[in-house]
Amino acid sequence: MKTKNNIPSQLIALILAMTLFSQCNSHKANEPMNTVIKDNHSYANPSESIVTHLDWTAELDFEKHIIAATAKLTLDNTPQVKHVILDTKGLNIVEIKNQDGETLNYELKPEDPILGSALLIEIDPETTEVSITYQTTPEAEALQWLTPEQTQGKVKPFLFSQSQAILARSWIPIQDSPGIRFTYTAEVTVPRDLLPLMSASNPVEKNTTGTYHFEMKQPIPAYLMALTVGDIDFLPLGQRSGVYAEPSMLEKSADEFEGLENMIAAAEELYGAYRWDRYDIIVLPPSFPFGGMENPRLTFATPTIIAGDKSLISLVAHELAHSWSGNLVTNATWDDFWLNEGFTVYFENRIMESLYGREYSEMLAMLSLQDLKAEIIEISATNPADTHLKLNLDGRNPDDGLTAIAYDKGYFFLRLIEETVGREKWDAFVKNYFNTNAFKVMTTEEFVEILQRDLIDENTVGLDSTFYQQWIYGPELPANCPQPVSNKFDNVEKALSNWQENHDTVTLDSSYGSSQWSTHEWLHFIRLLPENYGIEEMTLLDDAFDFTNSGNSEIFALWAVQIISNQYEAGYPNLEKFLVHTGRRKFLTPLYKELIKTEEGTEMARAIYQKARPNYHSVAYNSIDALLK
Ligand code: BES
Ligand code: ZN
């Protein structure tokens, strides 16, 4: 068929389609510019100029603890643009050029202690690229440079980054806002005896040049930029998964993560295809400040989850789940952090249920509820508004939002919706939510809208506007919070009262099966011990179960609180070892808090901290500094 002027209609259709496609494409990674959401934790001006791609070239100096780099940023500008504004923190800017190699004027604004310094670069609408040549400082907050002694192998140095929430700007000048996504490539040069890895396509072994190339094809926010370098080896676990670690940790780590392919399959079965090609894990040195970090394609993990019996593997389920909740559908600002973490705890729990059964996942949910209740009591005393799911972190460090509220209140909120509408409807909704919002940002308000539009109608009893008001914008824990059920925990409670009566290990096993207990049952048991339990009682428990020498970090960290509160001296050497060796903040904070409750404890805390502090990442030592101040 021909149109009047003899152009084939197919051609017109093609031209039309191409025009439409190119229009969509120009803002491919991001929302149309006028809908960019205000982020109080970034100086960026995405509504005028937005970063869509990064080419990062870097050379690492392990003597000086400096990265010398060029960040070439591709920009998408509005016709009126005069500046692009980037986030930086402690960077030494050398020069800035445009795509034609012309030098650009810039201004580095005074540094805010939390947000860092805005970098204003003069551009015009035709500036498609800015190339920033710069150096990091040894104090760059995201980076921890480890001496050989601080590694497992003790021979070679190590480096890792931790960018979330707003520390990417301390090693890359970038628009450091979770609502701004970009693709990236990197060319990284390291000493020839070390291997670099990023949140991107990764090498599996060292080469002879020391220069490596990386590519992340899917657009990601800056908080997912990640780099680690060390004497690192790789073992495949399956077709699309594997594990990296220092040589001496590699076998153990591979054993612990043996079921990883099944876990990915279980996650996909629940909520749709894994969209990042590969899923690998790196087991970092013990100073890594978190349990895990969901860097795309390469989860960063603490070695404290390598328990030898796979008992702490739910952490991997958690980081894997972030490949959907967080990395695909991303909290628009840190005030919406619960959308990342609450969804992830929910998804983690479902993965664990499908792999290990409901009994198992209900134990996790019980522990989560206990954490939540304790956290609510603690936060309510000082900052009741911080118990709302939707936070207001304006003027504060987004780190303040890292509490059990986002994680566990978020989890129970979603679980309540599941229980109200039924699992089938809910799962279909969630799968569709991840799909239709993939590579997009999400605000709490938009989530509520989508929920109401796609899942909840007027007939859904109990899910009206008061419901959102209470759970999302209200304090504490609403009365309709779901209650997990765990027969195993009921059994542990009975076992404990029996133990209190007769201190008899034989009945503990014969009547309550303690020799078969999982880590989670032991955790419940230890959590239930009275606060000032007494040295004699602790000695009896130790004689029977040797908690003081437990190789399970979760069990030891909990027991260590008792060691402190009871001044149980038999536990002091291991307590000190643990605090000096481990930099995982979740373990450190409760222990130092417990120590500083007494005068002797405070003295002990200071003495230990003096030795321990050089081993901690800034995220950890900033928190502990504040405690001991
Ligand atoms: N993304 C978080 C860690 C994080 C959050 C770092 C905010 C910095 C700012 C990660 O997924 C996480 O939640 N880690 C937990 C794991 C646990 C809940 C299974 C951790 O590190 O303990
Ligand atoms: Zn998480």
UniProtKB/TrEMBL annotation:
Membership in a protein family: Belongs to the peptidase M1 family.
Taxonomic superkingdom: Bacteria
Extent of the signal sequence: 1-29
CDD domains attached to this UniProt entry: M1_LTA4H
InterPro entries in the record: Aminopeptidase_N-like_N, Aminopeptidase_N-like_N_sf, ARM-type_fold, LTA4H_cat, M1_LTA-4_hydro/amino_C_sf, M1_LTA4H, Peptidase_M1, Peptidase_M1_C
Lineage: Bacteria, Pseudomonadati, Bacteroidota, Cytophagia, Cytophagales
UniProt source species: Reichenbachiella agarivorans
Domain Peptidase M1 leukotriene A4 hydrolase/aminopeptidase C-terminal: 486-628
Main location: cytoplasm
Enzyme Commission number(s) of this protein: 3.4.11.2
Stated name of the protein: Aminopeptidase N
Catalytic activity: Release of an N-terminal amino acid, Xaa-|-Yaa- from a peptide, amide or arylamide. Xaa is preferably Ala, but may be most amino acids including Pro (slow action). When a terminal hydrophobic residue is followed by a prolyl residue, the two may be released as an intact Xaa-Pro dipeptide
Cofactor(s) it depends on: Zn(2+)
Keywords of this entry: Cytoplasm, Hydrolase, Metal-binding, Metalloprotease, Protease, Signal, Zinc
Key word Ligase present: no
Subcellular location: Cytoplasm
